[in-house]
Inverse folding.
């Protein structure tokens, strides 16, 4: 049986913004794993912390089980920018 991953949009952020949670789920209600190789953010569970400006990529995947197939990775990209100084 197939399944899907739903991943809420991530708006662009500004360095200095507070850490924020990601909203992600699977149609099977099985756990979804989030990962990044970006040096622009840190990721702890579903919590994202901005580290430096640039483009960050987060992947979501779900391994499946004996009844459900692996859900291939879903990728979200967003940018963080430096704040405007006046």
């Amino acid at each position: 049986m197939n399944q899907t991953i739903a991943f809420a949009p991530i708006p662009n952020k500004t360095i200095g913004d507070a850490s924020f949670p990601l909203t992600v789920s699977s149609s099977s209600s099985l756990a979804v794993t989030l990962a990044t190789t970006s040096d622009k953010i840190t990721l702890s569970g579903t919590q994202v912390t901005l580290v430096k400006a640039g483009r960050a990529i987060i992947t979501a995947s779900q391994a499946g089980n004996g009844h459900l197939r692996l859900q291939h990775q879903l990728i979200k990209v967003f940018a963080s920018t430096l704040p405007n100084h006046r």
